[in-house]
DNA sequence: CTGAAAGCGCTAACAG
DNA sequence: CTGTTAGCGCTTTCAG
C-alpha cells in the first residue's frame, strides 16, 4: 500500500459536496456531462478545500500526460529561443505543457534523455539531433516524434529551405565579385551541416565559384576562432569569402580575423546562418541566412499534437519552411 | 475502467519470467532486495519484452515524480544558461530530470506555470520571479521551492553578493575619476533591480559619488537603446558613467551611444551585470559584474533535493554566493 | 444526470 | 528472499 502524503482528493471533495466521487471527477474532466448547478457547487467546494487534480493519477488511467518535450542539442544556441517559444505557444493553445531538455551535443545523452522523456510525455519535438536515423525511428515507434532540421525517412519532420538560403548567399557573394568561398563546417553528425555543404557546392558549381571546405569546427564562437586560424593558414588558397555553419561560428571567425589584423569585409566577406540576435550586436553586423524559427517550433509542435489526436495522414515528406538572406555589413565587394 | 493503450507491464514480465509481479517491481525499484540471479533473469526478460517502467504509475504510489522544475522569466537571457546547466548537473547527480518553464516576465503566466508544475514535480527552482513574496510563500507551502536571486523570508533562497559586486563597480569608476554615475533601472518587480540600486546608492554615498537613477527600462538590448535616448536627453545632468541593470541593457546602451556619435568609454563608461557571453562579443568589450551562475543553479537544485530527502534544517537566511567585477574595455578614466 | 465499481501500473506492508 | 494483497487518485463503463 503506497503511503502517499495526504492531499485533497476527489473523495474529500465528494464527501464535502455530498455527491459521488465520479461526479467530482466528471466535473473536472467532462464538465459538459454534469448538471451545471451541481458542477458549480462542486467547483466551489473544491476551490475551498484547495483541491488540485493529480496529473499522475489522471495520466495513469488515460495515458495522456498533457506534456510535450522539446529536446535540443544546445540551450545556448540563440536560434532555439524562438523555436522553443513557437512550440510553447502551439502547446499552450492545446493545453499542453512544454518540457525542455538539453543534450549538450552528445548522442549518448540524447539517447538517455529520449528514453526518459518518452515515458513521461505524449510527444517529442527533436531538434539538432545527433543520433542516427535508425535510432530516431526507434524512438518514434514508442512515442510520436517530429524531427526538426533534419530529414529522417519515415518520421515526420519540419525543415527549412536550406538550398534556397544558401543559394541566395552564394549569389550575393557572386554579385560582389567573389569567386572562391570557403565553407566552415559544423559538427560532423549534424544533418544541416551536410546539407549546407552540399547546397553550397551545388550553388558554386552553378555560379562558377570555387567552393572549399574547412573543418569540422564546433558550432560556437570558439569554433569560429579555430576556423579563422585554419583559414589564415591556408594562405593563397583561402579565397575572399566564407560561409560559416552558423552565426556563432561566423562571429568567432570575424573576431579572430580582426584581431589578427585583417579586415571584414575588406579582406574577407563572412556569412553566418540562423540570424540570431548576436548577429546584430557585433561589428560589423553579420550577413546571415534567416529561418522562421518561431514557425518551425509551432509547426513541429502542432504536428505532434495532430498525430496525438489521431490524425492518420502522415505527410508524404518533410514540411519545409522558407529561408531568406539578411544582408548586413560583414559582406562586401571583393577587394583584391 | 481506464482503457489505457497496452504497453508492457510488470505483469507481463512477471509471467514471462515465472515470478510474482512484486518481484519484478522490486527488481527495478529496490534492486538490493532481490536475489541477484533472479534479478538478472528478470532484467533480461524485461529488456527482451521492451518493458519500460511507467513513471506516472510509480509516482502515483510514491508521490515522487523524480522531476524538478526550473522556472525562469526569460529564456533569452544568457545569464540563465549556466544556471540551468548547474541545476541540471545537480539534478542528474541525484537521478532527477529537469523541466524548464519560461514565464516571459509575466506574473500571471508565472502563477499559472507554478500552479501546473507544482502538481507534477517534486520541487521547484524559481528564478527571476515577478510574483509577490506572499504568493511565493503560498506556492512553497504546496511544493518545495528554492528562490534564486531574491530574498523571500520564510522560503529558502540563493542569492549573490550584489553589494560586493556593485561596490567593486563603484570603486572602479571612482578610481577612474568618475563622480557622477547613472543607474539604468530594470523591471520594476525585479528584486535584484531594487537591490542593485540600493547598493549602488550606498556605495556612492560612501565614496562621495553622485548617483542618479533612470528608468525603468526592459532588461533587453532594446531597453538599453531606450535608456540611451533618455540618458542623452539629460544633457548636463547625465554624468560620465553608467551602471546598467544587466549586460543586455548595457550593450543596447553602448550601441545607441556609439550610433549617436558618442564614444565609449571616452564620453561615458558603462558597466553591465551578469557577464554573459555577449559581453565579450561587442566592441568595446563590456566591463561587468559576474556571478557564478553554474554554482547558483547547482546550489539551488541541491537544496531543493535536500529538502525533499527530508533535511529539516532550513538555513537561517539566504545562501549567498560571491560576485566579482570583470574589467574590460567599456570603462575608462573620466574624460572631461 | 448520477452512483457504484472496476481497474490504469506500480509500490509497500505483511506473511511465509 | 519471494508471494500475496491492498491501495495511490482518477477515469470510465454500466446501471439506475
Give a structural overview:
The structure is a homodimer of 336-residue chains. The N terminus of chain A is likely disordered. The first copy, chain A, is elongated and about 90 Å long. In chain A, strands 2-1-3-4-5-11 form a 6-stranded parallel sheet, with helices on both faces. In chain A, strands 7-6-8-9-10-12 form a 6-stranded mixed sheet, with helices on both faces. By secondary structure, chain A is of the alpha/beta class. Chain A is 46% helix and 16% strand. Chain A binds a DNA duplex (16 and 16 nucleotides) through helix 2 and helix 4.
Describe the SSE topology.
The structure is a homodimer of 336-residue chains.
Chain A: H1 10-17, H2 21-29, H3 36-49, H4 55-62, E1 67-72, H5 79-93, E2 97-102, H6 107-120, E3 123-127, H7 133-142, E4 145-148, E5 157-160, H8 162-175, E6 180-184, H9 191-207, E7 210-214, H10 221-233, E8 241-244, H11 247-259, E9 269-273, H12 278-281, E10 287-290, H13 293-308, E11 319-321, E12 324-326
Parallel strand pairs in A: 1-2, 1-3, 3-4, 4-5, 5-11, 6-7, 6-8, 8-9, 9-10
Antiparallel strand pairs in A: 10-12
The first copy, chain A, binds a DNA duplex (16 and 16 nucleotides) through helix 2 and helix 4.
Features:
homodimer, 16% strand, six-stranded parallel beta sheet, 46% helix, alpha/beta, elongated, 336 residues, DNA-binding
Short description:
The structure is a homodimer of 336-residue chains. The first copy, chain A, has helices at 10-17, 21-29, 36-49, 55-62, 79-93, 107-120, 133-142, 162-175, 191-207, 221-233, 247-259, 278-281, 293-308, and strands at residues 67-72, 97-102, 123-127, 145-148, 157-160, 180-184, 210-214, 241-244, 269-273, 287-290, 319-321, 324-326.
Amino acid at each position: 500500500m503506497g503511503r502517499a502524503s495526504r492531499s485533497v482528493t476527489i473523495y474529500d471533495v465528494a464527501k464535502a459536496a455530498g455527491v459521488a466521487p465520479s461526479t467530482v471527477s466528471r466535473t473536472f474532466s467532462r464538465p459538459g456531462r454534469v448538471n451545471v448547478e451541481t458542477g458549480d457547487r462542486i467547483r466551489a467546494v473544491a476551490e475551498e478545500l484547495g483541491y488540485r487534480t493529480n496529473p499522475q493519477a489522471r495520466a495513469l488511467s488515460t495515458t495522456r500526460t498533457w506534456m510535450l518535450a522539446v529536446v535540443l542539442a544546445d540551450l545556448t544556441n540563440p536560434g532555439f529561443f524562438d523555436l522553443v517559444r513557437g512550440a510553447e505557444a502551439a502547446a499552450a493553445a492545446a493545453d499542453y505543457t512544454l518540457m525542455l531538455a538539453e543534450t549538450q551535443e552528445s548522442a549518448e545523452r540524447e539517447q538517455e534523455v529520449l528514453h526518459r522523456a518518452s515515458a513521461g510525455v505524449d510527444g517529442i519535438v527533436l531538434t539538432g539531433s545527433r543520433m542516427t536515423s535508425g535510432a530516431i525511428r526507434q524512438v518514434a515507434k514508442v512515442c510520436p516524434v517530429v524531427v526538426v532540421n533534419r530529414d529522417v525517412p519515415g518520421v515526420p519532420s519540419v525543415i527549412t529551405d536550406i538550398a534556397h538560403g544558401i543559394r541566395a548567399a552564394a549569389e550575393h557573394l557572386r554579385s560582389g565579385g567573389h569567386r572562391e568561398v570557403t565553407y566552415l563546417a559544423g559538427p560532423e553528425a549534424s544533418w544541416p551541416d551536410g546539407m549546407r555543404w552540399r547546397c553550397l557546392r551545388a550553388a558554386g558549381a552553378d555560379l562558377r565559384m570555387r567552393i572549399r571546405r574547412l573543418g569540422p569546427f564546433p558550432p560556437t564562437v570558439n569554433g569560429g576562432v579555430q576556423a579563422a586560424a585554419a583559414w589564415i593558414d591556408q594562405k593563397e588558397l583561402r579565397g575572399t569569402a566564407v560561409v560559416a555553419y552558423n552565426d556563432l561560428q561566423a562571429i568567432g571567425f570575424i573576431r579572430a580575423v580582426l584581431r589578427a589584423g585583417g579586415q571584414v569585409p575588406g579582406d574577407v566577406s563572412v556569412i553566418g546562418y540562423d540570424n540570431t540576435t548576436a548577429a546584430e550586436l557585433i561589428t560589423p553586423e553579420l550577413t546571415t541566412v534567416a529561418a522562421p524559427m518561431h514557425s518551425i517550433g509551432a509547426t513541429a509542435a502542432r504536428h505532434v499534437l495532430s498525430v496525438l489526436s489521431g490524425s492518420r495522414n502522415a505527410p508524404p515528406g518533410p514540411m519545409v519552411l522558407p529561408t531568406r538572406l539578411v544582408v548586413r555589413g560583414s559582406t562586401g565587394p571583393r577587394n583584391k
